[in-house]
Design goal:
single chain, alpha/beta, Rossmann fold, 2 domains, seven-stranded mixed sheet, three-stranded antiparallel sheet, 12 strands, 18% strand, globular
Length: 287
């Protein structure tokens, strides 16, 4: 039994199912605020994820929760809602071909004679594996050349939950199985005692990565353009209109000749854009 605000006691077993009307309300709100398009067949998934939030708050109906989100002037419950519906799957060196492309073509091209730091953006950083991989690859590139790399990886996500995990930089040992052994020794510290079975990202790598919450639907806030943007396996959740708007914003956020990398399951070939495709899922801004 749980005490619901203003409703006395109720049994969780009697919690109502998410109805069609409430699904439309939530899906419209989520699309408006986060750009995520939920098809009708996602209703059961949304029901399961939001039910956990209702239980945490002691609410008995989805309409109560919707009204709470709408009336919350702080916006914090909207953040909780987006956290609940965001899908966060990632791994170190996921879709390794992208990092090979970065190492073999992009870095040799953009690193020569550059004034100021190279700027990278992991636009859906999740729990940190992608931006830390980016930082490892770039730092290792300069390390092998006997140089000190001057670069920064901006790592953003809409989910505060995964960002908190990313900033800690602590992972179960099995999560780093895909990291090359030499990099594992250089960039991770093995846990002992209570931390046995875990590894932690060393400060020498962390200093290259800056995490922050950001909604891709908002106006881009960065003054300096990026050399490379990674936005992988994100646009599959957006409809075509949102995809085109976002791709246009990415184009404008890159330096002339900068690169956009998207996921292997994605394509922007049917969208209106000004990028030049240079590899299967890699695109270059004119210039």
């Amino acid at each position: 039994m749980v005490t619901a605000p203003g409703n006395g006691l109720f049994s969780l077993e009697r919690m109502e199912k998410l109805g069609d009307r409430e699904f439309r309300l939530f899906s419209s709100l989520i699309y408006e605020k986060a750009g995520i398009y939920l098809k009708p067949e996602k209703k059961e998934l949304l029901n399961a994820r939001l039910a956990k939030r209702l239980r945490a708050l002691g609410l008995s109906s989805f309409r109560e929760y919707y009204d709470l989100v709408i009336s919350d002037s702080t916006g914090q419950e909207l953040v909780q809602l987006i956290d609940a519906v965001s899908t966060n799957f990632t791994s170190f060196f996921r879709e390794k071909a992208h990092f090979d492309f970065l190492l073999e073509r992009v870095l040799p091209e953009i690193s020569g004679g550059r004034k100021g730091p190279l700027l990278f953006w992991s636009a859906a950083s999740s729990s940190g594996e992608e931006p830390y991989t980016l930082a490892m690859v770039v730092d290792d590139y300069f390390y092998r050349r006997g140089e000190t790399g001057d670069f920064l990886v901006e790592a953003t996500d809409i989910s505060t939950k995964v960002l908190a995990m990313a900033e800690k930089g602590i992972y179960p040992e099995e999560r780093v199985n895909t990291v090359p052994r030499e990099m594992l020794k250089r960039y991770f510290q093995k846990g002992v005692g209570r931390s046995a079975g875990y590894v932690k990202v060393k400060e020498s790598l962390k200093r290259f990565v800056r995490f922050s919450r950001f909604n891709l639907m908002d106006e881009f806030r960065w003054k300096d353009p990026f050399d490379v943007i990674f936005c992988r396996n994100v646009m599959i959740y957006f409809n075509r209109e949102t995809q085109e708007r976002l791709v246009r914003k990415f184009y404008n956020a890159l330096v002339p000749g900068g690169y956009l990398i998207i996921g292997h399951s994605e394509s922007i070939s049917r969208l209106n854009h000004d990028f030049i495709q240079v590899a299967a899922t890699a695109y270059r801004r004119n210039g």
